[in-house]
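go over both lines:
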Amino acid sequence: MSDDAKPKKKKGGGMKMILLIVIAMVVGGAGAAGGLYAAGFFSHKEEGPKEDPNKPVLVLAGESAEEVAKAHGFSGGGEKEGGHGGGGGGGSSHVPSGIHIPAKGIDLPTPANPAAYQATYFQLQTPFTSNMSDTDAFAQISIAISTYYDIRVVEAIKTHEMAIRSQVLMMLAEQPVETLSTPEGKRALQGKIKTIINDILKQKTGYGGVDNVYFTNFVIQ
C-alpha cells in the first residue's frame, strides 16, 4: 500500500481540544465566582448596632469597678457642675456617630443574678435638710447609693450632684411628716430618690445605673 492510501490526520483537532478546555475553565470560574457572590463573599458585610463606649457596663463579682471602666475607655472623673466642662457626663459625654440614645436616656437594668456581680457603694457626703409640708418640722437625711455597673455611674453622680440635690430637696419639701414617720413612707421615699437620681443621670449622660438608695441617717424634728 502506498503512502497516499494512509488516512490523513484532521487538522485543527488539537486547537479544538484546547478551546474546549479554556471554555470549561471560564465557565467553571464564573460558576465559582457566582457561588461566592451568592454566599456574600463579595457583598458589603452589614455591621451590627454600635455599642456606645460611654455606656457603663456590669462589673463581675471580684472585679474592680474602676479597672472595668478603664478597660472600656474611661479616663478619669469629670468635674462637678459649675466648673469647666460641668455639662458633661462622668468622664466623657461625647456620643460617637452612628449611635442613637433616646432623648429620655436609657435605664440600665438590675442583673437577673445580682450575686454574680460586684456592687459598688457611694455615700453622698452632705446631708439633705428640708422643711416638711404644712408643718414647722424639718427632715435631715443622709443617703448612699449602690450600682452593679462600673465607676462611671458614681462619677456621673459626683459630676451632677448639684442637680440631684436640687431635685431631691424640692421633692422632700413636699412630703408630709406623717408619711415619713412610717417604714412604708421611708421605703417610698427611697424609691422616689432613686428615680430622681436615675432620671438626672439619663438626662445628663444618657444612662441610669443606680440600683438602690440607702438611708445612712434619718432625722425628723
In short: The chain has two domains: 15-46, 65-220. Strands lie at 120-123, 128-131, 138-147, 212-220. Residues 13-38 form the longest helix (26 residues). Confidence is low (pLDDT under 50) at residues 82-92.
